[in-house]
Amino acid sequence: MEREETLTLLDDLLTESAHGKGVVAAISGSIAMGKTSLLNAMMARAERDGGLVLGAVGSRDENRRSYGVLGQLLHAVEPDRLTGDHLPGLRSGAGPDLDPADVHGRLLAVARELHGLIIELAADRRLLIAVDDIQHADIASLWCLRHVAERLTSAPVTLAFTRGALIDERPPPILHDLLYWPSVRRIHLEPLSPDGIADLPSARPSCVHSDRLIAEIHSLSAGNPLLARALIEEHRFCADYAEPGARPRAAGAAPGELPTGHTFHQAVLACMHRLGSGAVRLARSIALLDGSASTLLLSRLSGIDAELVERFVRALTTIGVLHRTRFRHRAIQQSILQEIPLGEGAALRHWTARLLHEDGAPPHTVAPLLLDAGPLREDWVPAVLRGGARQALTDNDVARALRYLELAGECCADEARRMSVRAEFAGVQWQLRPATSDQHFLALKGPILDGTLTGADALQAVRGMLFGLDVDDALEAIDHLNVQDGEDAVLEAELRGTRLFLATEFPGALDRTARPLPAAAVSVTAPAEVRAAHALALVLERGADEYAVALAEQVLQSGRIRPSWVVKAFPSALMALVYADRLEAASDWCERLMAEVEEHDVPAWRAAAEALTAVVALRRGRLTDAVEHGEAAFAALVEHKWNIAGAMALATLIEAHTAQGDHQAAARYAALEAPPALFLSRAGLHYLYARGRHHLATANNYMALSDFLECGKLMRHWDIDTPALAPWRLGAAEAWLELGDRPQAAQLIDEQLTRTDPALARSRGMVLRGLAAVRAPAKRPTILQDALQLLESNGSWYEAACVLADLSDAYQSLGEKAKARTIARRAWRIAKSCHAEAMCQTLLPTYSPGAAGTGEPGGGADTDYTTFARLSDSERRVAVLAAQGYTNREIADKLFITVSTVEQHLTRVYRKMDIRNREQLLTRIHLDSSSKAVS
After folding, report:
1. What percentage of residues in the chain have a pLDDT greater than 90?
2. What is the reported pLDDT for 246?
3. By C-alpha distance, which of 462, 389, 395 is closest to 429?
4. How large is the average pLDDT for residues 64-75?
5. Degrees, nearest 5: CA angle 28-30-32
6. Mean pLDDT, to the nearest integer, of 510-514?
């Protein structure tokens, strides 16, 4: 029954009473269902019709005052009409004492006088006696009202009560007798329906006619009229709902939620306070437990009996505050938490956290309470906060993880545990600000040396020092930890892992320790980080070792990104693939990595992903991508001080800019003064080789030779002399050739040829290119063709373009100018796709794109263009990418089609253009029209 219907029913009761028939009406319902509003409307109607209204309100605070409600009713009666021994005193608040020896007699006397007065008043005009919240009325008043109600059958009197639920106390039997007298008309108010909300007076002049808004108000308020009116008031002028499909733009609302404000929150608090202090305590307990609120926990936290807890929960659910044991709106929960008195909040949160912990709640549930409460020095607290920090990292909330760890440090009772927390804090701080993290790790050197920080935590701090290129400090700490007494198996395992780390990342530091680190025996059950480092070490030592490649792939396939996996396992495993010349696989993993880190706002993860992607892009010949990713990594990793990852990004940038021909940009990076510690690392080898390429490209041949030879000296000394890492012999050979010393160059090339693993396709292709440079002109084409085949199969397009340029020169020197032009055209296009502008400029004298078709066997440029124009758009896109050197799989990935579709398009392209293979395709596509087709 909606409220308008209820008002009509109450009007009918007044009319019935006016015809001389006494009526008793009881209006019941949950808190804030509108009982008082209906009673007030009934009283106003009676007064408007000329009736006399006697009104009173029951109060929880005054229900022990005898005759309190009767006294309120008599205030509306003229004093001279109050006769008898008792009623005058009731009006003034001085009622008769309830003598225990004669309670019934006194009550009966008062009741009779009251009945007589009512009959007398009703003789003049119809009478309405209205009592709001009768459940809080005193027992004496209830007794007298029941006496009157039983005797109103033929008097024009209406007796109307409102009754709310008594949750935390039992109602007196006399109340039950009054409300359930057989002739009582009982009206129960249910929550409003959506139509009932739309009919509220406050809704009519506003924009709340929107069906969608009405539905949202009903959902959020659960039909509670008080809450519905508050929401209507807040959205009275909500232009956001003026257009169909629009959403409210108020701040703080979650997607799909109607935004709420101060008015609504205060209405919710008012509902709770009306239920009493027990309801308030319970609501605070539910807010603190935040979804972990079992009946038992709520009972322990609030101090309320379990049965009573369930009754309060039902009541709060009925009035629209709760849905089961959760708040209907997050903002309601926040309002309740903010209402907790300042002096009680910390202790209450500590108690809540302790109860949850004892109940077995996970750390990420308990930790927020501790964070809001402040330090609590109990043994269980630091572990819970550290667990919360790890979960926060998984949830992509690094800032929260840092706050947990800061508090965990304050809660530690002993220094050793506090230092352990500080080590973990430093690691998380690195994830947020890798460029300035060195100070946090260096601050842990002292605790390591004095024995306060030990074990795995200490070695993690050592790795942080190595990341910041503080190698001497790191080695001092390692020497202190490397006692090798065999008593600490965990520490010994960590030391083995540290040896692997040094061997792959800082091979120059491995022989600088005071005592040798224990050798690493890696099993298939070893942690992913150890297996990845082992795979990398094997590739650096043996080349494209099949077991090492399989091991790296296994690590990479072991699961989605996790915090430790991104930082530790992934880079080593990926670089193992890179140094094994498995560039296509490495590229696929980089794409997955970049897609994963997009979901996480962790600068160090993104920087690591950018740096790795830059390396792979460089080796794939995607120079623009290499620069873009390298610059992003360098900006995030380097500020005032070098670090190992920043140095790797910088080396990639120098080499990529040099290949593009942007020597000024390369020079800016090469001019940065590298710290000596860099040259103890694998990244230092990349840096020396890249700087050598820059010197060579700018005709600084002696400096280039010096860099290449120094790179080679270190690689030989560290026993990682693989060209897949840095082909220093090839660089030095080019420098010797520029200096006119062909024998020296030939010696280095021959030496590299014998040392190169045949399975290293890219490296062997580059070596064959170098070999062609020191062989007689007549032998060069065959050698270069072999090199080209290897590089194309490996997807090393910049190196392939270099080989094609050399092949064009070789044919030119042999007088085969047509072949030279054909090859130059192909070299130009691949170089252009790599954005190797310097190479394109070098090729221009041999091949000009404006004369692409001149002298070629298929006809001139116009003929080529006409033939190309006959292709469909899809065929053109595939043809252009094929001409640029992409494999069928790469074309399929770029155009989001299958490999089979690519093959079908190429078949049609070959037929329409009257060609047989990609070699002929390169000679027939006009570059300008190709560009248009791609766009």
Report:
1. 50
2. 43
3. 389
4. 89
5. 105
6. 92
Count Cα atoms within 13 angstroms, Cβ side, for 427.
Answer: 23
Q: Give me the torsion for CA of 680, 682, 685, 687, rounded to 10°.
A: -100
Q: Kindly list the distances between the CA atom of residue 742 and the CA atoms of 249, 389, 737, 763, in Å, as whole numbers in the listed order.
A: 74, 61, 5, 21
Could you report the per-residue pLDDT of 105-151, keeping only the tens digit for each? 888 988 998 999 999 999 888 999 999 999 999 999 999 999 999 88
Other beta carbons within 10 angstroms of residue 772's beta carbon come to: 24
Q: Confirm if 583 and 795 have CB atoms less than 8 A apart.
A: yes
CA distance 305 to 296: 9
Contact (CB, 8 A) for 867 and 924: yes
Structural contact between residues 396 and 601, judged by C-beta atoms closer than 8 angstroms = yes
Greatest pairwise CA separation for the chain in angstroms: 139
pLDDT tens, position by position, 317-329:
888 888 878 888 8
In the block, residue with structure tokens 């009945």: 115
pLDDT at 180: 87
Structure tokens at 67: 């005759």
Condensed to tens digits (0 to 9), the pLDDT of residues 429-485 reads 998 899 999 999 999 999 999 999 998 899 999 999 999 999 999 999 999 998 866
Q: Tokens in use for 156?
A: 């024009």
237 SS3 class: coil
* CA–CA separation, 365 and 352 (whole Å): 11
- Per the listing, tokens 């021994």 go with 85
Q: Residue 237: pLDDT above 70? A: no
b/e map 515-540, b = 16+ CB within 10 Å: eebbebebeeebebbbbbbbbbbbbb
Tokens of 157: 């009197």
Does 204 score more than 60 pLDDT? no
What are the Cα distances from residue 880, in Å, to 197, 504, 613, 872, 907?
Answer: 64, 41, 25, 12, 14
Cα 329 to Cα 198, 365, 861: the distances in Å are 21, 19, 70
860 phi/psi in degrees, rounded to 5: -85, -175
CA angle 521, 526, 530 (to 5 degrees): 75
Mean pLDDT of 655-675: 95
Number of H helices, E strands in the chain: 49, 7
For residue 644, the surrounding DSSP H or E stretch is helix 644-660
**How far apart, in whole angstroms, are the C-alpha atoms of residue 298 and residue 122?**
52
Through-space distance between the first and last CA atoms of the chain, rounded to whole angstroms: 66
Cβ neighbour number for residue 61 with a 10 Å cutoff:
7
Kindly calculate the radius of gyration of the chain based on its CA atoms and give it in whole angstroms: 43
For residues 505 and 466, the answer to whether their CB atoms sit within 8 Å is yes
542: alpha, beta or left, given left = phi > 0 and alpha = psi -120 to 50?
alpha
How many C-beta atoms lie closer than 10 Å to residue 644's C-beta?
Answer: 21
Task: Please enumerate in sequence order all residues whose Cβ is within 8 A of that of 191, keeping only pairs 6 or more positions apart, or say none.
Answer: 30, 33, 222, 223, 224, 318, 320
Burial of 902 (0-12, 13-18, 19+ CB in 10 A): buried
Contact 423, 389 (CB under 8 A): no
Q: Give 882-935 pLDDT, tens digit per residue.
A: 876 677 888 888 888 999 999 999 999 888 888 887 767 766 664 333 333 333
Task: Give 523-582 as a DSSP string.
Answer: -TTS-HHHHHHHHHHHHHHHSS-HHHHHHHHHHHTT-S--HHIIIIIHHHHHHHHHHTT-
The crossing angle, in degrees rounded to 10, of helices 861-869 and 927-934 is 20
- Beta-strand relationship, 157-163 and 127-132: parallel
Of 634-638, 677-681, 923-927, the range with the lowest mean pLDDT is 923-927
Higher pLDDT, 45 or 562: 45
